[in-house]
């Protein structure tokens, strides 16, 4: 039932781990990167409530309720993943990110609703934790793909403004895994029809998106609103990591920032690097070309290592999920305190990045993985115990607002403004992420609903 999340996470991890690298390669300045990411949360804000509503009101004896949306999202995401690293210009890469994130969103929330659909209340914590286990596997493997294909002989070097072949191959593998894993869930999972099919069909005829949306917003339980506050600070932190960890860590931990080709090339009147008829950069001299390529090689090696270190949070989230899986099979848990402790540990992991070395960076991501594993399971387990099961898809989609709004704020300048209050160095963005995650952890004190807490 949850295996398709392996593919979704392949797409999500490649997007989160390497889009900033693609943006930098195509000429983006570091402080412009969060703004280029704005497509991702904007599409989530628009797409997920609509997809949730449609999946709530869909039933086909042949295709099921949620599965049609898995398939549509998988087709679109796989095609976009394949073409993303072939982007010839920055604006094309930003546009493809918009399509990619929309497609992942089309698949993702129906998957979460499927778990709530098929599992009784007593098994939902276990179900979401197993989903997190699969997500952790996908995160680790996908984050290591560029490093792995480079070790297998695919070059991670390329001309200025060109995406390395190792990244291209990694995204192609991700496209295949995304599609194949979604198909596996579609062909092996049977969806149950609504308990009262006649009533469902009658309500479907009378339903309308805007009135249902307004009613759902009005009926939003207090627990969902409190969880929304936790989600706000949690996802602000992780958006900061996805958008700025690559430039921050290659620069601060590996002392290997991306070289600016404009310092080595002839420039036109607009200050851009001149190119010849073959679209190759015209350097100031042969020595400048060699110097740029040497520094760019060091950066690409560091970027591969940052990607591999980032994948560690997938492993630790997987270990976290595995422990919870075994425990929740026979015991109830206090979701509130587990989530609180995990988020605080993740916040400390971000703060430790300031002091990390290449050999100790992985420990930061181990701690971050505890937070990630909890974020992917505990809020949804608490939410599913608090909402109308007949509107699970819509509520999951609305809950996504508390995920995308902080990301939109971050992308529109929130990250750049706040981290520069600490200092100009890009590593301070990771300190900001740590503080945000600790605040998210402390906000769990607001959760008081016993049904949400115990599971």
Automatic annotation (TrEMBL):
Keyword Membrane: yes
Membrane topology: Multi-pass membrane protein
Tagged with keyword Transport: yes
Keyword terms: Membrane, Transmembrane, Transmembrane helix, Transport
UniProt main location, coarse: membrane
Transmembrane feature ranges: 37-56, 68-84, 90-108, 128-147, 167-187, 227-249, 305-325, 337-356, 362-383, 395-419, 425-447
Superkingdom of the organism of origin: Bacteria
InterPro entries tied to this protein: MFS, MFS_trans_sf
Signal peptide coordinates: none
Subcellular location: Membrane
Protein name in the entry: MFS transporter
